[in-house]
Design brief:
alpha+beta, single chain, elongated, about 100 residues, 4 strands, two-stranded antiparallel sheet, two-stranded antiparallel ribbon, 2 domains, about 15% strand
Length: about 100
């Protein structure tokens, strides 16, 4: 399959950008179905706003640490996620003990 450069329009700024044959080959190899919608500048701006990093970089999202009260023992703890309302949150010790009890 032979690819040729295409001119696309950015959905954010409206400027034209080139979707190169090499990029098209990459999209084809990865089996991506959609063409890019943003120029490089707008894509970089969007990545910065969303807190994500480009492919090949460190993890995509910044870690979240939230103070919470353990549902098991009642002590203050820090968890690496935002707790969902109505779901219990456990400190490391309670989580480990529940995990080992469930696997036994």
């Amino acid at each position: 399959m032979e690819f040729q450069d295409k001119v696309l329009k950015c959905i954010d700024c409206g400027s034209d950008f080139i979707f190169t044959a090499g990029e098209q080959l990459f999209f084809h190899d990865k089996q991506f179905k959609n063409e890019p919608k943003r120029c490089r500048a707008c894509k970089a701006k969007r990545v910065a706003v969303l807190g994500a990093t480009p492919a090949g970089g460190p993890p995509r999202y910044a870690k979240v640490e939230t103070q919470a009260t353990c549902s098991g023992c009642g002590k203050q703890t820090t968890v690496p996620f935002r707790p969902t309302q109505g779901r219990p949150v456990f400190c490391r010790e309670c989580f480990q003990s529940r995990r080992s009890a469930a696997s036994a």
